């Protein structure tokens, strides 16, 4: 294996990946969504942030916990954003098939641990259910987390106007300002506001209906994108990555 | 339509159901699981309790909210209980297909509102994801709740040793004592104990792995079945039914 | 295992089911349909009667032929009744998937013999074909019967105006009068008449077309529901159960 | 359209088929199986005979009932013959998909009537169930018959040692002697015997298990192939074709 | 095995096929299409010619290369011909399922080598992709060729006005004149002309769109059917068969 | 819409994408593969190059041909590379489902033209067949090209030792040197050699078998990676992009 610090699967050669598999590396599989993110953010935010946190975490772990970051899946379940335009969505069965094939390939490539790292609220319950199914189907060990669940504490402490991530909000806008500042349409920031929401998977409303996001917010934003700063974003990204790295070190120990 | 107070779909005639459809009735679709429930409870508990709460709630609503209770689905996602024996489980895609056909049939029978009422923790995230999918596939209005989420407060207030329902626990055992007392193996009650758990869908652990329930508990019980009483059970059943009835009256109003 | 005489899977504990599996018990899997049954009978008749006959038969067999009755499947193939309202139907592929998962679960629970006991004419050819397919797919031993085929003789001898079961007819109405008398709308009995039919699977017409049942009968009845009595019903139920019990004793002997 | 008397779809040009569609022609779709047929008959018997009867019938109808014979499907459900070798079998879902595509194509080609004409006992219940399903799926009019059901009477009258068709038997061997005499291995005829059977779809045994045909017969024959004559075969083929032609004239009248 | 020179699977008995399997025979699986072929040719051309070349080739190989010709699949991918009428088409997934079942059956019948021999341009890329998939799915050795690719040279040398096969063209018309002369509508030959095309799978146009064949040609013909002669046809059929036979001898040697 | 020159879907906001849809923009959908690319190249090459050419082409077209580049699909059909490790592969049906969902989403987002731009030889025939299928399924206009087919001429003219692209070869290595020079393991370049191949989809061998790439080359390279230079790579990338841009301007004109 070269001296590289590279952690991205698609930036590594097959031989380097084979060495990592032999060393018992954990494979992080980021998944996001390509969907409307208000007037000020690009449609790729969920994908970009999931991958960003994975890469940062992979560099934070110690040498005894090798980590590879698989190519990020830029597509998720986004039917509720379709009315806004600019949105790509998968059906549940397609997502199932895609994850099945990828997990089976990772297993065949010699890796024993897979952790799916999600960046999109709309994927949460589906991924939970699919992990259960894939574990039975493939007899492999595959885990699931959301970068914003791992980093729940730092998000709460950092945000001034929200308790957690919403959509194209104080938190997401801050992270894009920190990681990909040229992608924020700053002239639209004053319109980047909408009502507060709870992620469906974490809602305490006892009844769930699948409703279009446009019923909730005209702007496509839930939360306060106008309160974002790059400093908050950096703190969140760093904190989520650190939380994920801690999970990797404590939960995926060598055998 | 006859003078009957009957609320069960399969106890009603087609003509009676057609009248209810015309009157805008909500269809409750209970779903449970057939799975091990410790040494003292029968395998049908989740199915029985979901249906019991639905029937009670259907009788509590006022006349302006007609309700029909569809035949309960006795099968769910129970792979994690398979190692104990006595357990039946569906794959996710089978559950999807089954719900699709039932919801489509209910829609074709002239009903406009469907509420799936779940009684099994292992179905929670899957049903959430499937409701989202079915709403897009069928262009119908279908909601989802768990009877124990609707009645979360009364459960917490009633139980002495648990914060919420676990498995074959203080709560479930109490409910069976209240509704189907002959089905409790009382001589096994002292063994009906196990570690406390949180339902996976409500867990705060940031990482999720699908693990066999036998890794968690040798007895098949999580919580304290030995602290159950019929009085607690009646209070929980009544409280959950009342909570569900309140949801029906406030959320499914006539159009 | 407890001293119980209980035969229903979902009324038994996992440990009791494990003992029955070890003893080589046959699993009866009743399947019905939820569909219009004329002006006088509830939609659940086929499901109720299949399960009723199974339970009776399970209590008739001798000790050397232990029997478990799985939770009854209340859904079948009922497209031909959809125009009447009040009817739920599955697609053939959903029924296939459901039976596959249930048979596989029963096999994994340690049982070696499964007998599907059908109560709905519209399921007959499909179940025959699916049994063939499941036997190849799962490498298990699964048989198929209809309770009214097993009890063909007693039905013919008992009915005064029909040669065999039709739909919501002299036979079915009699059985509901015997087993669930409160579910018969007696004030509608005089309308409970329709033309004689032969079950499609037993028809001697060389050409088969799938036609709506409404083309055949306006009332939803085929046969003479108005000639029903509880005595006939009891005789049929008892006779069908005895015939099924005989099959169990002679065909599913211990290994 | 040319003056040809041709009835085979694949021997006709597209323009000729368009004229037939316009004239309201019935499309016969023969289906057989490729499977062991004892020591003396080729594996294609079921396919050959179904197509033969269709072609003969198509030439017997009067001018007011135009008929087209689609390319025969040489594959069916033959799992029960696999142990003998030389056998091709489809899964039920493949057969479903194949018939769905063919019926949809025939419908798109402008034809309004399809009659599937089966030549293989093992296809009977599956085709019955699939016709029901396809009728609902495609909203087209598709019927189903077996050539030996249509011609049940002539078969019974002609055969000396059997009540109906069995397998590689007095009847099938006679038909091949009549239609394709060079394909009968006459030197094997004395071994062409086996026990009498009833076609599963017509069996009066109340319990059905899918068993390998080799459990039933070592020779692969059920019935008495050694009693076959070409005269019997001609009489059966002619009689079945006449019966099918009668059905076409009486049941598929012009609209 | 009899002294027969028979090579057709469905003309052979199971025992004869078992001997051939034991001797290491290659199974040729011809596939065509049933689709419009201009005003002068029947719809079955692709199927007929694929099977014809296979049978001829099977008779040309030496004794050390036994060959069986499976029943020809008369259905392929012909969506692009649907607008002309008279055409049957499969979906890609149906074709996949059909080939999977047939290849698996051939494998279970004891044969180790399968070569799919295609006669329809519209199947080419699909079969290439499906072979790749089936090889992975079934772990068997299955190859793919087109009779007109194997015989590419003789086709080019024989045709006077075309470089290769087109559709209902100089080449195809010639072959039908040679093998099935009664099926050519000679009175339509002067209309049997259309623009030159390249088979999509061999096109050098860098962009591919799936377009209806009717956009390309009003007559349904591509190429010059009016330049056909039986002599050319015989030369092509013989040459393609010889080329295929050579491939069989050189590429499928005994193990 | 902002003044940005941005062409990447996931770097654009929903509102900006809606404007582009209204202006009739063509959506390029790059697809690659994540698979072994010899000892010297990373596994993501096919994905990176397809996306690179798309982005360059999108910037080359004139203002009257607006273009959007969808998120690149990093996964393809790579079963033949699995034995090397480091490789991810999809099944054909998963790829079908993924493309179906993406094309349908793009259509629902208001775009009328989709061009799939492939960068992986192993996807070629499958994409050809799937485009045909998707066109029928979705009734949309979707085209397919490979960047190396569009730029076939410039590749041939540029390479010194090859006639066209092979695998991890003179051409691919040159392109990575030009676009992502830090990803080339230069110390491995002398081992980056292997036998010459023709892409399966362009092979003139009349018989196709799906064989593992390891049978062809031990190093995982086909062609001469050691002859690569950044200058050649730049020329190829620029030439392919220009060829693609020309196709866009000439073939996707405004309506």
Q: Let me know the largest β-sheet of chain A.
A: 4 strands, parallel
Please identify the top-level CATH class of one domain in chain A: Alpha Beta
Biggest sheet: strand arrangement of chain A = 2-1-3-4
Find the biggest chain interface.
B-C, 55 and 56 residues
- Which architecture of one domain in chain A does the CATH hierarchy give at level 2? 3-Layer(aba) Sandwich
Helix content of chain A: 40-55%
Question: In percent terms, what proportion of residues of chain A is strand?
Answer: 5-15%
- Based on CA atoms alone, the radius of gyration of chain A comes out at 18 Å
Count of DSSP strands of chain A: 7
Q: In CATH terms, what is the fold-level topology of one domain in chain A? A: Rossmann fold
The helix/strand series of chain A, from N terminus to C terminus, equals HEHEHEHEHHHEEHEH
The quaternary organization reads as homohexamer
Mean pLDDT of chain A: 95
CATH homologous superfamily of one domain in chain A - what is it? Creatininase
Continuous helix count of chain A: 9
Task: Assign the structural class of chain A, choosing from mainly alpha, mainly beta, alpha/beta, alpha+beta, or little secondary structure.
Answer: alpha/beta
Annotation keywords:
Rossmann fold; two-stranded antiparallel sheet; globular; 41% helix; homohexamer; alpha/beta; four-stranded parallel beta sheet; 9 helices; 255 residues
Explain this structure to me?
The structure is a homohexamer of 255-residue chains. By secondary structure, chain A is of the alpha/beta class. Chain A has a domain at 9-159 and 234-251: Creatininase (Rossmann fold, 3-Layer(aba) Sandwich), CATH 3.40.50.10310. The first copy, chain A, contains nine helices and seven strands; from the N terminus they run αβαβαβαβαααββαβα. Chain A has helices spanning 14-22, 45-60, 92-108, 124-138, 147-150, 152-158, 170-179, 213-216, 230-251, and strands at 26-31, 67-69, 113-118, 142-146, 193-194, 208-209, 223-224. In chain A, β3 (113-118), α4 and β4 (142-146) form a beta-alpha-beta unit. In chain A, α2 (45-60) packs across α9 (230-251). The longest helix of chain A is centred in the last third of the chain and has 22 residues, at 230-251. The model of chain A has no long low-confidence stretch (mean pLDDT 95). Chains in contact: A-B, A-F, B-C, C-D, D-E, E-F. Chains B and C meet through α1 and α3 of B and α1 and α3 of C. β4 (142-146) of chain E pairs antiparallel with β6 of chain F.
